[in-house]
């Protein structure tokens, strides 16, 4: 397979895989979330063989199987018959891999996005001091954690003391 054709195929495969949504937070694509890590296209007996690598938000993430299946379906529907999806655990996923567009989508959906890890954990390994979680409904910092686990393990449940609305906060990892 010509190198230029392979790179064109890789860009096309990436663009297709990037449309797959997170089944737990369907407003985010796996690209927004930073789960989509790499795409490789090779020639196997004159046909493209596709390998997509994804990194789960944590090693026990129950959504990873659905993401895998959705990637395979998306790519086979687009004409790629030889598709392998590999789950890669190292390096471990971090919320710093989330796109700014993804964080904005979370907030518009009513989920408080994560702060950069350096703001939470400190860039020098020390624990940072957070000023509070901003309510995605009214913008108030006068919020409190109700439960460390929200609708998924990746999120905590908060309530806004100003507007009274509950909301999920996507925890920094």
From TrEMBL:
It comes from Humibacter ginsenosidimutans. SUPFAM superfamilies: Fe-S cluster assembly (FSCA) domain-like. The gene is paaJ. Residues 12-77 form the MIP18 family-like domain. InterPro entries: Fe-S_Maturation_MIP18, FSCA_dom_sf, MIP18-like, PaaD-like, Zn_ribbon_PaaD. This is Phenylacetate-CoA oxygenase subunit PaaJ. Residues 132-171 form the PaaD zinc beta ribbon domain. Gene3D superfamilies: Fe-S cluster assembly (FSCA).
């Amino acid at each position: 397979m010509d190198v230029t054709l392979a790179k064109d195929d890789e860009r096309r495969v990436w663009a297709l895989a990037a449309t797959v949504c997170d089944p737990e937070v369907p407003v985010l694509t796996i690209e927004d979330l930073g789960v989509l890590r790499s795409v490789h296209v090779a020639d196997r007996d004159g046909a493209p063989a596709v390998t997509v690598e994804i990194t789960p938000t944590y090693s026990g993430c129950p959504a990873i199987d659905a993401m895998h299946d959705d990637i395979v379906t998306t790519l086979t529907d687009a004409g790629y018959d030889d598709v392998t999806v590999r789950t890669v655990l190292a390096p471990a996923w971090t919320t710093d891999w989330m796109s700014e567009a993804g964080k904005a989508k979370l907030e518009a959906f009513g989920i408080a996005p994560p702060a950069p890890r350096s703001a939470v954990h400190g860039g020098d390994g020390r624990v940072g001091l957070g000023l509070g979680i901003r309510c995605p409904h009214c913008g108030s910092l006068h919020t409190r954690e109700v439960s460390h686990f929200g609708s998924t393990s990746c999120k905590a449940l908060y309530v806004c003391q100003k507007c009274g609305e509950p909301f999920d906060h996507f925890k920094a990892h």
